[in-house]
Amino acid sequence: MIFTSEKDFLSNYNKKDYESPLLTVDMAIFSVDAGQLQVLLIKRSNYPQKDKWALPGGFVNLSHDPDLMASAHRKLVEKTGIQSPYLEQVASIGNATRDPRGWSVTVLYFALIDFKEFQKNATEQTEYSEWISISEAKTLDLAFDHLQLLNLAVERLTNKTRYTALPVSLMPKLFTLTELQQIYEIILGQRLEKKSFRRRMLEAGAVEETDQSKIAGKRPAQLYKYALENYDFHFPRTLEYPRENH
Amino acid sequence: MIFTSEKDFLSNYNKKDYESPLLTVDMAIFSVDAGQLQVLLIKRSNYPQKDKWALPGGFVNLSHDPDLMASAHRKLVEKTGIQSPYLEQVASIGNATRDPRGWSVTVLYFALIDFKEFQKNATEQTEYSEWISISEAKTLDLAFDHLQLLNLAVERLTNKTRYTALPVSLMPKLFTLTELQQIYEIILGQRLEKKSFRRRMLEAGAVEETDQSKIAGKRPAQLYKYALENYDFHFPRTLEYPRENH
DNA sequence: AGAATAGTGTCTTTAAGACAATATGGC
DNA sequence: GCCATATTGTCTTAAAGACACTATTCT
Question: Is the Cβ atom of A182 within 7 Å of strand C at any atom?
């Protein structure tokens, strides 16, 4: 068939003539609670892979989701009630075998939320969901290739924690530097030097003092807020692994 | 409908019951020639967007491509004849408006190849293609959202050039450090200090001497080869921007 | 006063930048 | 020997690590 114009071509085009894949968005929603990095998992209530733990996610709604990010955002709001989390695309996995229903592509996003904020917004869910620590989640028999997806998301988060201020997104608006450092240490699984950590945050202008302080037992601590426009900021060096003792 | 088992569910499942998106893979194939970073563009020979310049790419072949990477690799071989380039997924863009045919997702990959290797393997193409410098490509009226895709790929490449040895993939097997440095300078658009550059490559063990040297006019130069298992290696710091003169 | 947590001073270390000096081979 | 390009020496600088010290509040 020969077409004479874009319009002519389009009026003769029928999507159903071609094979299409399944398209899903899956979310690794992270939070820190009880001294551990946690991920929100759901228990699948339907086939396929019924009753297995899985990352929240599902089909992109082509009629209502304007783009992939919107689809990810919709799922996040459904599960957590949180409107403005940190949300980042990690990767897409697509192959003929990951879903028994056929050639399937999933676009993986990760989100960072403040656990306290989640508790405030918690809504009744149709599907059972639970916060599970990363270490435990990795031992579960997750649905589909979700273990691989979880690993990709965790790897992205830990890498970025080494050279960005991203973990601020796991905190409330105001936080102390000690609290922020603790979050870094939980994600990295490594102790950090207090002085280096504070100098780094302050000298780069990533955080700034507020006029408030937090009283929680002993000496009150200065409360800080995130001071940059966005989360693209990269520190000039990555945090090192602890040096050898000798 | 109630299903009693995974098998029962699958035997009743029909993909055509659900809407599916268009799925394409697009490639930013980079090379360096004539002192400039170049990208391989094709002139579209069919609707939609006929006669516009575009990144090579096209529909994932669900019957023959086992996964997304295989699809990207297939397109790369078709266009360049090169079997083992550096290939990395950049991002996926999916929305209702980028393609007039309907909700469309493209998975963007970038590839790095040695220009000389390309010339050796060049094959006749059905579609007209041409190497175009990045600066020129950005001024063209590219098809669909390919300008955005190109920008994403270039950004990924320049970022990684600051902290990895990736640009080695744009070189032949054996290369001199001066040649490698020139490639870095072209990608970054910035002069680098010779001593710092060599020290960095050598001390990290990213490259190692071979027993060959290259005679090209004046003093012969030592030929090196890439010495690491893969391209995941990160230098401990990023290359800096030139310091201020004062 | 003592304990506990917040916050600072300052020396060392690592790896990059700057730039001058030396080495090698073709002509 | 001269020139161009390759290669090295070495001082400076930026930012992180180590670790001891001071400050503030509660009990």
Answer: no
